[in-house]
């Protein structure tokens, strides 16, 4: 499908070309990435080892942390290494693989956030029917469908990327491969492909955001009839979900629902949803969730006991 073999590799300009700033980028994003790995892997291990966290909500949180880890890993390690390199080249095939993985786990995160919103809606608005409507088995089927849907979406992105003819400039003014910066390098009219990109990625982001936020508006409206304790607990859970949704969807919608034009702030906005959100998600979910914090304490105390026994 690749129409032109003139370009076999791309040069990534990264966030900056200034040597001093590149060192700052290296140190900052290494800390960001290590923090993301630690936070999300801690949630994954805690949910897998704790009997108290076996409800569908934590089943979905497990997959959110997993998708966050993989999503960030598709970009951060290369970006960190590139910050120390003089010339940052990426082969054509590696670039296409990065596009696929980035969109696969980005889309998976969107679907998981939708499922978490549905889970909270049923739990709060239809509590008596919760166990019959939502179960770990049902969640398992829905997550499997999310994986398939993500694969379809990212395959469509690759199809669009491979249909672009590259015959000259190969410098990507970004720190990772994505369709928006690749469109600028194509030596043909990209209007139709950009339209398909907006109708694919842009529509998924926008429609999903509207669906998720609508479900939380219905949930918050229904809280009027709940007890003070029930309101407090539901608000604590929902507010953390709304923060995550806003942080992730806001920058994504800005990036994928517009014509093929680039702005100076694009790279920093991309940093926010590719590295910032995966770092903040574990903090938001653990700091605002007593059950997760208690399970982490028990996990830590077990580790200390086992270390003492040695």
From TrEMBL:
Alphabetical list of SUPFAM superfamilies matching this protein: Family A G protein-coupled receptor-like
Keyword Transmembrane carried by entry: yes
Top-rank lineage group of the source organism: Eukaryota
Principal cellular location given in the protein's record: membrane
Membrane topology: Multi-pass membrane protein
Organism, scientific name: Galeopterus variegatus
Record keywords, A-Z: Cell membrane, G-protein coupled receptor, Membrane, Olfaction, Receptor, Sensory transduction, Transducer, Transmembrane, Transmembrane helix
Coiled coil: none
Family statement: Belongs to the G-protein coupled receptor 1 family.
Gene3D superfamilies from the UniProt entry: Rhodopsin 7-helix transmembrane proteins
Range of residues in the leader sequence: none
Location of the G-protein coupled receptors family 1 profile domain: 39-285
The keyword Transferase is assigned to this record: no
Listed transmembrane segments: 24-45, 57-76, 96-118, 130-149, 201-223, 235-256, 268-287
Gene: LOC103610178
Annotated protein name in UniProt: Olfactory receptor
Compartments where found: Cell membrane; Membrane
